[in-house]
Amino acid sequence: MYKHKYEKYKNKYLDLTTPINIHNIYMTYDDDERIVFYNIFTDMLKYNSNNNITVIHFRFNKTDIVDNIEYIDNPLDAEIITIKGNKLMIKQTKIKSLQNIIDIYKENTTYDRNVFVYSGHSDGLYLIHKKIFLLSLKNFTEIIKKSIGKKADLIIGDACLLGNISSLNTCKDAAKYMISSPGYYGYTSMLSMKSLYKFPGHGKHKLIRYGEKLIDEYIDNIKVSANIILYKLHNQDLLDIINVMKQYKDKLRHYVCAINKQDYYYIDVECGLIDIGYQDFVSFQNKLDNIVKYHRYKRINESKISRLLIILKKPNKYKRESCDVFYCR
Q: Cβ neighbours of residue 191 under 8 Å, at least 6 residues apart?
């Protein structure tokens, strides 16, 4: 009898959730993408309960040419969507600078827990599409640091190819964990997952449990290829991996370990190190095991399933930044 009662209340206790701030930058580039966005927006309204959500929706067209936000001449068309409990507000605005974005999130930070989501297109280094170079990952981390004044609990890279060593290196001081893909990403968004809006209210490893549930729901519901990983950021194992890749990046062969035959500059790091005969590979693999806290994928096409990429060639033609610690143009 007592055991039955304990189990009943134990399960109820473990199912408790705590409200969080969800900060999202969403970029659309034509009317078809905006239809997708508003369908996702409907899901957000349906699944959210007590969370505080702020979406900055940038609206572009495919023919637009846009410089990085630090150098733009003309204000950018956007809408600010805030959802606080059951209260919805939508405001049309013009974004003139990175500081505008920071100020918007500052005004809409209610709770202690913070999740930042970028949704749109990415080449692994820039949050871009064709000739629109709105944000770099460095810009994104600056937004996080200056808007909440501390590390986010989680960054979600809701876009292609953000599961790479340069991305983790850039984000490691801005968040505790990161969910991203070392591969290509479909139009299904993490914003449409019920689990995003249910942050565990109890448990020692609740951040990891939260990430696991979110990834499980995503993989179980999509109908296209996907490769999604929860990474633990800013620990000694990640720093050691970064140092190894800095040392050996110039020895890796572009074509041997590409995740996609056409895009040979996106290289699986484990395959690359094996290929060059890296002597301490077992230790490297153990360290990678320690930062990859959860990994699931659905394989439909022939792309290589990677746990971590390195980008060996600058994939875009943007001229403002010529070098990263892992590559130069």
A: 24, 26, 40, 43, 44, 117, 119, 158
Query: Rounded distance, CA 186 to CA 223, Å?
Result: 9
Token readout for 250 is 């110039």
Tell me, yes or no, if the pTM score tops 0.90. Answer: yes
Residues whose CB is less than 8 angstroms from the CB of residue 302 and which lie 6 or more positions away in sequence, other chains included? none
- Name, in order, each residue with C-beta under 8 angstroms of 203's C-beta and a sequence gap of 6 or more: 14, 209
Q: Which of 164-168, 183-187, 236-240 has the lowest mean pLDDT?
A: 183-187
